Amino acid sequence: MILSLIAAIGKNNALGKNNALLWQMPADMKYFRETTAGHTVIMGWKTFVSIGRPLPNRRNIVITRDVAGAPTGIEAVSSLDEALQIASLEQGRKFEENQDEVEVFVIGGGLTYAEALPKANKLYITEIDDSPEADSFFPEIKKDEWQEISRDHHEPDEKNPHPYSFVIYKRM
After folding, report:
1. Burial grade of 93 (CB within 10 A; 0-12, 13-18, 19 or more)
2. What is the mean pLDDT of residues 152-162?
C-alpha cells in the first residue's frame, strides 16, 4: 500500500483557519478530485465536518472519537492506525486479483497530517504563493527525507488568484 498525503499549503505551511480552507483555487480542487478519485481517503473528523458530506467516488474513512454516532456513507475509526489497517485490507484484495498497488490518501487536517507524515511514502502538495494567517498547518517537509519528483508551476488567472505549483515528493 502506498500512503500519500495531499494538501494545498501556503509558503508558511498554512492549511486552514476556523475549520475552512484558506483559498478558493478551482485548479487545486480539480487536481484534488482527479488525483483522489477511485481511491480511499482518510481524514480527521473536523475535515469531514468542513467538507459536509462523504466525497463521491472514494472510500471515505474518518477518524473520530464517536465511532458509533458517525453518519452513513463513511467508515468511522478511532485512530489513524485503525484507518490504515482497514485500508490495507483493500491492498490484499488487489494483490489477489493481480492488480496494481493501492494508493491511500490522507486529506487532512493538520493533526492527521502530522501523525501520518512519518508513515507516508508520497506527498502531493499544491504550493500556493501566499502566507495567510492560519490556525492549522502542514508539518514541515524535511528536504533530507523527501525527493521532489515533479513540479508543475502555474501563474495566477481569473479563477486562481495566486501563483501555485503542483509538486510531488517521494520518500528517499
Report:
1. exposed
2. 97
Q: Which SS3 state, helix, strand or coil, does residue 81 take?
A: helix
Mean pLDDT, the chain, integer:
94
**113 membership: H or E segment, kind and range:** helix 110-116
CB of 112 closer than 8 Å to CB of 106: yes
Rg of the chain over CA atoms, in angstroms?
Answer: 16
pTM of the entire predicted model: 0.94
Share of the chain above pLDDT 90, in %: 87
CATH superfamily of 2-171: Dihydrofolate Reductase, subunit A (3.40.430.10)
Please classify residue 135 by burial: count the beta carbons closer than 10 Å to its beta carbon, then call 0-12 exposed, 13-18 middle and 19+ buried.
exposed
169: number of Cβ within 10 Å:
22
Pairing of strands 103-106, 40-44: parallel
Q: pLDDT value at position 136? A: 97
> What is the H or E stretch that residue 167 is in?
strand 164-171
For residue 164, count CB atoms less than 10 angstroms from its CB and return exposed for 0-12, middle for 13-18, buried for 19 or more: buried
Helices H / strands E in the chain, number of each: 4, 11
- Give me the residues paired with residue 5 across strands: 106, 123
Per-domain residue ranges of the chain: 2-171
